[in-house]
Amino acid sequence: MTHSHLTPKVSADIAVKHLRSIVGESYVLTGSADLKTWGTDWTKVYEPKPMCIVLPLTTTDVSKILAYCHDNELAVTPSGGRTGLCAGAVASDGEVVLSLSRMSQILNVDSTGLTITAEAGVATEALQDAAKKVGLFFPLDLASKGSCQIGGNIATNAGGVKLIKYGGTREQVLGIEVVLANGSILDMNVALRKNNSGYDLKHLFIGSEGTLGIVTKAVLRLMPKPRNLQLAIMAVATFENIPKILTECSLAAISVTAFEFFTQVAHKIVLARFAGARTPFAVISPFYVLVEIEQPGSEPEMESLLEKLFDAGLITDATIAANSAQFREFWGLRENITESLAAHGQVRKNDISLAIDQLDPFVKELEKLLGRIITTEAASTVASAAVDALELVLFGHIGDGNLHINYVSPKERNPKEFQAAARLIEEEIFKLLTKFKGSISAEHGIGLTKKKDLHFTRTAEEVAWMRQTKKMWDPKGILNPGKIFDL
Ligand SMILES: Cc1cc2nc3c(=O)[nH]c(=O)nc-3n(C[C@H](O)[C@H](O)[C@H](O)COP(=O)(O)OP(=O)(O)OC[C@H]3O[C@@H](n4cnc5c(N)ncnc54)[C@H](O)[C@@H]3O)c2cc1C
């Protein structure tokens, strides 16, 4: 599949030879297994077909690589942990994959200024561990944290489960170092909390999906550790009760650190597919909400909250994690959904967001559209038999207005037919999002998979400014061509 308008000025052999002269013989990979592994991400939809994989060790290496690719019009795909869910790191068109994996040093942990400085290839979990070691906390938290890298998190502006309390990646970033398309180094890697001296350019690169520059370093905020986290899993009969539970938390002035949900379909798939997963309830409920709170004082805030929610008829059952093993077990019921789905069947993913007060009206319209309620697998009345055969699996960071809608079919189903059926519903959902002023991507990004849909929730003017911005920073279009939009 061609995404690029570029006409390389050198052959692949010559390019590989030159790249080896920059990073060393063994750090440019061309073996077919390597090309396959590094040319794709979690989407697994596109056939990987990169030219080579190049693994720089320093910012200077990255600068030399980009200067060479720029001069010779070679497309470059930046690559982090490749856990992306929209084919942002996919290289399917002869690109040079630039992996930051060897740039994995934590450079400084400052427990006075509350910052951590790291190279882009550091895994998110390694940042969490480094903060923990000095008694502090790095709040970016996502189920892929063991594999994804801070560079990838910045490039996607990753959200995660703690966004409701601490914000997403953007809110954690104080400074970044970026290598631009022509190889020049833009040093914005400062640890300032306040800096109103002109435009804050770093924000352009956060969430730019590797299309404007390569993030090589970052200074990130650390926090004091949250004190006495409590976790409860609640059974909920109807979707409309979920935003109401959130309201009750706010009115009770509870410090909510995570507010997640999943449907019974998602729950059953985890129970069937994830080794060791157990439900804490005797009866399966249509919805579950996982609420984590910080309870710094001696008052049993979680118990009081649950009492209130039972009295108001907002929940039908609930259980509080009694120890750290149960804490992990309950979190596992939510965090293992993506992996369990991958084991369960073919999956097409949506990652939409809405204003919180629009969640319930949106879901009601969605159910009308589907001709079924979202927690059952009953046949649709509006679509085709092919659509009826899809399982709909909903979960997500509902406290942030973020719904992950997954269309699932057995692995044996013809993939093309499956994708076409899922697309039928997806398009209708995106039209609904236009009406509800939502977004087709809350946190995963656009990449290759959603670029044709950008127009549903971004205006033509916004997209035109995005194109102008891209042209300004990367006039030849060598950085991640074909991602977000075509030039
Ligand atoms: C099980 C699971 C759970 C997940 N949960 C969440 C979640 O809760 N919240 C969430 O937001 N996402 C989630 N994701 C998606 C994914 O983990 C995030 O998008 C993550 O930030 C991607 O990081 P990565 O290092 O894997 O990047 P990659 O997938 O390698 O790349 C992602 C994009 O960033 C670009 N890129 C990578 N590194 C750089 C760099 N140094 N400079 C410039 N561009 C770069 C790539 O070109 C690509 O466009 C989940 C994924 C999985 C598999």
Description of the molecule:
There is one protein chain. Helix 1 runs antiparallel to helix 3 (59-71) and helix 10 (264-273) crosses helix 13. The protein starts with 11 loop residues before the first helix and ends in a 14-residue tail after the last helix. The protein has 487 residues and is of the alpha+beta class. The chain is globular, with a radius of gyration of 23 Å. It folds into four domains: 12-102, Uridine Diphospho-n-acetylenolpyruvylglucosamine Reductase, domain 2; 106-224, Uridine Diphospho-n-acetylenolpyruvylglucosamine Reductase, domain 3; 229-337, Alpha-Beta Plaits (2-Layer Sandwich), CATH 3.30.70.2190; 345-443, Alpha-Beta Plaits (2-Layer Sandwich). It is 35% helix and 20% strand. The strands form four sheets. A seven-stranded antiparallel β-sheet has the order 15-12-14-13-17-18-16, with helices on both faces. Strands 5-6-10-8-9 form a five-stranded antiparallel β-sheet, with helices on both faces. Flavin-adenine dinucleotide binds next to strand 3, helix 5, strand 10 and helix 13.
The average pLDDT score comes to: 94
The first-level CATH class of the largest domain is given as Alpha Beta
Fraction in beta strands: 15-25%
User: How many DSSP-defined strands?
Assistant: 18
**Looking at the structure, what is the overall shape?**
globular
